[in-house]
Amino acid sequence: MTALESIQADKEKAPLIAKQFANDLLLEGTEKLGSIASEAKKL
What we know:
With 43 residues, the chain is mainly α. Helix content is 84%, strand content 0%.
């Protein structure tokens, strides 16, 4: 189930679901940036 589907299914928890989604997205982005930085150091 996607974040949007979860929000539509449980509107009372929508702010919490959105916050968790954003947090996960930021974590994933940070991990990717870390990988890119590691590869750039090898150049």
